[in-house]
Amino acid sequence: FAKEKGKNNYQFFTVDLHRDLSDKMMLEREMHKAIDEQQFYLEYQPQIDMKTNKIIGTEALLRWNHPKIGLISPADFIPLAEETGLIIPIGSWVLETACAQNKAWQEAGFPPVRMSVNVSLRQFMQQHFVEKVEHILEQTGLAPEWLDLEITESMTADVSHAQKVLSCLREIGIHVSIDDFGTGYSSLSYLGKFPITKLKIDQSFVRDLSEDHQAIVKTIIDLARNLNMKVIAEGVESQEQARLLLEMNCTEAQGYLYARPLSALDMTKKLSG
Ligand code: C2E
Ligand code: MG
Ligand code: MG
Ligand code: MG
């Protein structure tokens, strides 16, 4: 059960889904109710321009606050939501909420930032995915250039599908980033085939900037530059990491050093200066 914890303001309930089938079935049942009963909410983590230290974007991160269990980590329920297909309605809710929030910030007169939204494989593979995204943009009134969809390398396995979807998104003006870049098993050749805006260097490389990891990070940064893509380092926690990343010409960063994922209200305060 979730407990209060000093520095973080919460601790996630964790569950071993592979071992405990009854937990899994329980979670599945509960997940069905969670949307209607408004147990989901989003947190927003700033993305920073490393040169100016200004906020240029924010990533929407899904949270599930169950009335009895407490806060359940996305790492625990998103795989299950994928498996059961519930990620489709949940993902739509996330996209709609994040776009509406960004539009509200813009209407309030804050300097515009890009909203990054995580997309799961099942969402990406569904028919009419692009139309659904377009519909949400129309509904919320957010201009496509302020939306950034985060996909993972695994979603490019079906090359022709990915090519179709990504080129449609790009035509509309929506941005696409590759999340957790460097941890997938896909070949690099796909990068040139798809209109991708940004590579997100996985936090496992940033966490421990050993010599090997520095070489990998530097290679990703150079790769992005050579392919005319932007690059952002995930999971930046220390000044030392930021310094090394700047030295390697990294331009954008996200991590606890700058801000933890924030409630909509706290993010609003951050944006207002
Ligand atoms: P991700 O998209 O790679 O998100 C980054 C994760 O790293 C987030 O974990 C964030 O809270 C955490 N993080 C950010 N800065 C730091 C740092 O400096 N140090 C450390 N140790 N961690 C940091 P979170 O919120 O638990 O989300 C985990 C994963 O769940 C996400 O990884 C993403 O794959 C998935 N996820 C979250 N929200 C959604 C969603 O709305 N839809 C889908 N499909 N997946 C989501
Ligand atoms: Mg992400
Ligand atoms: Mg990531
Ligand atoms: Mg991820």
UniProtKB/TrEMBL annotation:
Could you identify this protein by its name? GGDEF domain-containing protein
Which organism was this protein described from? Domibacillus enclensis
Entire protein: shown range = 405 to 677 of 677
Q: Where is the EAL domain?
A: 24-273
